[in-house]
């Protein structure tokens, strides 16, 4: 397998080349989890793997509980499905709780006090109640619990890791919380080995070809658990060595030899970027990439490689897309870029479409 074949296979497995998905939850379940601290960007990440879906349709999926936005695996927001959240939490929450613990101590959230807060949240949200973080902070304070603006964030992370709360729908522009038990009842618990095998297979099927190091980064699992998970399912995977690194992926029956130009306006933290510890294969050695963490940028991807960054400016009825290139585009690449910008305006349901500014 060459680096070019590796990139093409990833694009295929990530559902970026073609996709038959019609619902946001199908995309999220295929990928296992979708990093989502930038909510607007994460919705666009789903849409590029789910043709013809709109921004508002993903809001509706969140409100209906068909996708959940919560802290899971790594200590950051992810989309996950109700069917998957319980067993993923069972094998990853201990690490997130350990990372949250120093902040809990810093803000006086020791266990007895934390339990009182968690019990209050349980009572307040029972009966399909959905409340914003600010509303829950006020409720805790009115109950005589001295919680600060800084402390409430870590209380909510703890509540997520203990399977008490998850995301509710939007209240205006504000996110809410609801009880996880009322959104995703706990059924058919998996053993640890079953859960490790399931998460490993989900990752290498949707993100492969990838290395063990990539999987450890993405999943947040310990080296021991990640190795065990891979060992449990490696008979179902194909193994390839590139530049002395071992890559694993599920063999695909679909053709992946499409040589047409593919251009993507990926959001920050897109799974195509954030899903791997090593991102060198995503950069052309002849293309000068500015210093800094590319994860924080919206990236222009041309034929699988990072070719620039982009920003959006929303107007009343249109979107302005500003592109900063790291190399010049060929004519067919620029034409494809215009088509993707048109798709983005359609996703946002903006009647006047888009304007595109390109600079180097």
Walkthrough of the structure:
With 360 residues, this protein is α+β, with helices and mostly antiparallel strands. The chain contains 13 helices and 13 strands. The protein has helices at residues 3-13, 24-31, 39-47, 55-63, 82-106, 111-125, 133-142, 149-161, 192-207, 212-219, 223-233, 271-274, 331-347; strands spanning 34-35, 68-71, 77-80, 131-132, 165-171, 174-179, 238-242, 245-249, 263-266, 298-302, 305-314, 319-325, 354-359. Helix 5 packs antiparallel against helix 8 and helix 7 (133-142) packs across helix 8. The protein is globular.
Order of helices and strands: HHEHHEEHHEHHEEHHHEEEHEEEHE
Gross morphology is globular
Helical amount: 40-55%
Distance between the termini: 33 Å
Q: Sketch the major β-sheet.
A: 5 strands, mixed
Q: Please compute the radius of gyration using only Cα atoms.
A: 21 Å
What topology, given as strand order, has the largest sheet? Answer: 9-10-11-12-13
Provide the structure class.
alpha+beta
Percent of residues in beta strands = 15-25%
